[in-house]
Write a structure and sequence with these properties.
CATH architecture of the largest domain: Orthogonal Bundle
CATH topology of the largest domain: Tetracycline Repressor, domain 2
CATH superfamily of the largest domain: Tetracycline Repressor, domain 2
Distance between the termini: 46 Å
Strand content: under 5%
Oligomer: single chain
Shape: globular
Number of strands: 0
Radius of gyration: 20 Å
Number of domains: 2
CATH class of the largest domain: Mainly Alpha
Length: about 210
């Protein structure tokens, strides 16, 4: 899916830098207030530019939001794309769980942006979900079914396995305040992600290890 903005001509370095400033400001605003609660004026203020100047680079709030979501989806799906059917299943799944937790740690604003869009019914990214996302998940589900048929992992529903990994890893981005509050000062520091990684590896990998 291609997301274009003001002009099809090649952008200059300064134009690209200005767009990045706008997108960074918009990410902060959208992740804090959601799409409906955010305005072009708020984004322009956060970017340190006038509203007319911002609208030179993006036609509308929807245009900015769609660009952010497309970028997010590309980033979010990268670890799943790297799941290799030739590799050892336990190694591949361990790497996937770890990468997803690293993204929860490093991209909490992006995770909230995506969660807000989904909660609203995905009005701006449904074609992405039904197209690119579905195609990739179906492809990797077939990889996992191949591992099951070869006796390399225990039989299970691969689609729901992927969903559950998403849910458990993204929890540490979307509910980070709750996680830190419950763990307290002794366990709520950066080490919480390593603790989570060890637990989720045990949960998934032991559950998927072939019996006998």
């Amino acid at each position: 899916m291609t997301v274009d903005t003001v002009t099809p001509r090649r952008r200059t370095r300064i134009q690209q830098e200005k767009r990045e400033v706008i997108l960074e400001a918009a990410l902060e605003v959208f992740s804090a207030h959601g799409f409906r609660g955010s305005t072009i004026d708020q984004i322009a203020e956060a970017a340190g530019m006038s509203k007319p100047n911002l609208l030179y680079y993006f036609r509308s709030k929807e245009d900015i939001h769609r660009t952010l979501l497309q970028r997010l989806l590309d980033t979010w799906l990268a670890p799943l794309r790297e799941l290799d059917d030739i590799g050892d299943p336990m190694t591949e799944l361990r790497s996937y769980i770890r990468r997803k937790l690293e993204m929860a740690r490093d991209y909490p604003r992006e995770s909230r942006l995506f969660a807000n869009e989904i909660i609203q019914g995905a009005p701006r990214i449904m074609p992405m979900l039904e197209g690119e996302l579905k195609t990739l998940v179906d492809e990797k589900a077939e990889v996992m079914k191949g591992w099951m048929h070869a006796g390399k992992i225990a039989p299970t529903d691969p689609w729901h396995l992927i969903f559950s990994i998403w849910a458990t890893t993204q929890h540490y981005a979307d509910f980070d305040v709750q996680v830190r509050a419950v763990l307290g000062p002794d366990r709520g520091g950066e080490g919480r992600f390593e603790d989570a990684a060890r637990f989720l590896e045990q949960l998934y990998l032991e559950g998927l290890r072939p019996k006998g």
